[in-house]
Amino acid sequence: MFDKISKMVKGAAAATAILAVTPQVASAEMLTMSSWVPPTHFIHTDFLVPFTEKVAEVTEGRVTVMILPAPLASPPQHWELARTGVADITWGNFTYEPERFTSMWFAEFPNAGTKAESQSRALWRTYEKFLADNGVFDGVKMLAVGMFGGGQLHHASNSITTPADVQNQKFRMGGPIQEQLISALGAVPVAAPATKAYEMLESGVIDGSLHTMESVVNFRLEDSLKHHTIFPNGFYDAAFFVIMNGAKWDGLRDEDKTAISAIIGETLSAEWGKNFDAQSPAATEKLAAAGHEIVDASPELIAAVNTINDQMVANWIIAAKAAGVTDPEAMRAFYNDTYNALAAE
């Protein structure tokens, strides 16, 4: 499938390049980017588009990035799209390929924090220190990583404040941490990307869904999800990537790699987090103004989640060692310490 898509992309890119060529940019390197959110979503308008503009700016037009008009595959396939060179640049969620990215689960546990910029910067530093040489990341150039400032629990028709309220309710979720949380609380996990939540709620397949507050608004779920349960340090989180095909990166001019290097890494990771830090409070205000129920999780529910979390961490340490992480405890402690220091600034 990827071979067929690759030919289509190259044809589209070539056509665009012919139409856009001018004497000043005739020798420009044009990179393709596949994105799976609508062009109205803030990740597109406020993060991806500014990044493409910055690439053109710092390379003085020698490198440009074209965001393709439609995603080349489903969200879980976007790592492979870039690794195999079907698209030059992609972004996605590590948790959509849990077996491949076991090493990253630590970023998704409850209580991972609610300041997305600090989280994203801490995650970048953790990746650089502990994971950059792990073979699972071979074949790509990591441009950024990011987190979203704490996901919460949302329900279509009921208030959720205690463990009893969760029993037997069907929740859309993504990835092993969310699945373990939902199952251990006595609910029914239904695995699907966030982009599928709307149709699943409309058809009654699920009773609720796990999202950040901003996702309820930005994925147009506010008419379906009207009850929101807030955990003070996050019910769960998610870890994201922005990557480029490794060979494509290696093939860029040295001067362009140097220029782009100044705007990626922790810098681009921080930009990811800043966007979520702006979006979620605004979404919470909008939902409250619309009459949605926004409640705090009870101490009983928080305690239940913390007990589950302790066991998940213990299980993950074993799995992470099997996935090639030498000292998972040290890696998780480094992330937590770094996040706390950055969040306190």
TrEMBL record:
CDD domains, alphabetized: PBP2_TRAP_Dctp3_4
Compartments where located: Periplasm
Pfam families named among the record's database cross-references: DctP
Keywords: Periplasm, Signal
Gene3D superfamilies referenced in this protein's UniProt entry, alphabetically: Bacterial extracellular solute-binding protein, family 7
Signal peptide span: 1-28
GO cellular component terms, semicolon-separated: periplasmic space
Biological process, per Gene Ontology: transmembrane transport
PANTHER family per the UniProt record, alphabetical: BLL6794 PROTEIN, PTHR33376
NCBIfam families, alphabetized: TRAP_S1 (NF037995)
Protein name per its UniProtKB record: C4-dicarboxylate-binding periplasmic protein
Gene this chain is encoded by: dctP_1
